[in-house]
Specification:
The chain contains 2 helices and 11 strands. The chain is mostly beta strands. It has a single domain (25-177), classed as Jelly Rolls. A 5-stranded antiparallel beta sheet has the order 1-2-9-4-7, with no helix packed on it. Strands 3-8-5-6 form a 4-stranded antiparallel beta sheet, with no helix packed on it. The model has no long low-confidence stretch (mean pLDDT 94).
């Protein structure tokens, strides 16, 4: 360590706001407009930072994201994320189950099947999605670069399907009832 580096000493009490115990977390079933859509129901745990939350009320377990956001995603078989993109790197690491991570649309679609402890890093601007293709409920970690709440872009058919299920985004990118 260089002479100019200072060591920070923290008490357990000071560290508590930086600790997320999984059993203490409550998943969100409506963090994104797509979660009501068939095939996209999933539990999302905002562990560090708000990530890509479209719910203005999202309260992550650890608020200080310091350059990255972490969410845990739990899903039954044949459920996952709809196609989307954003301007941040997104990393997927399964804890359990088998997952299809796919990117690009139409004839350009590519896919990889990953399992526990495998890792896929999707660059900014690439349309991406994932699905639990296993036989049981599985967990996947998503890490998103950046310190701010990322804005998600989706194909128009996904936006229309979300609205048909009752959710859309307002002008500020917050999730609202589609009837508003």
């Amino acid at each position: 360590m260089s002479e100019s580096s200072e060591i920070t000493v923290m008490s357990l009490e000071e560290m508590r706001e930086r600790i997320a115990i999984f059993d203490d977390q409550t998943p969100s079933t409506e963090l994104l407009i797509t979660q009501r859509m068939p095939g996209f129901a999933r539990d999302i745990y905002s562990v560090i930072g708000r990530g890509v939350s479209e719910d203005a009320k999202t309260k992550p377990a650890i608020a200080d994201s310091s350059g990255f956001n972490i969410a845990y995603v739990g899903a039954e078989p044949n459920n996952g994320s709809a196609m989307h993109t954003h301007e941040e790197v997104e990393v997927f690491i399964p804890f359990s189950g088998q997952w299809s991570v796919f990117w690009n649309e139409g004839d350009a679609r590519e896919e990889v099947i990953i399992g526990p402890m495998d890792c896929v890093s999707v660059p900014p601007g690439v349309m991406r999605a994932f699905t639990n293709i296993g036989d049981t409920y599985g967990h996947l970690m998503a890490i998103i670069a950046g310190t701010e709440n990322a804005t998600v872009s989706r194909p128009q058919d996904v936006i229309d399907a979300a609205a048909a299920e009752g959710l859309k985004l307002d002008a500020d990118g917050h999730m609202v009832d589609a009837a508003e």
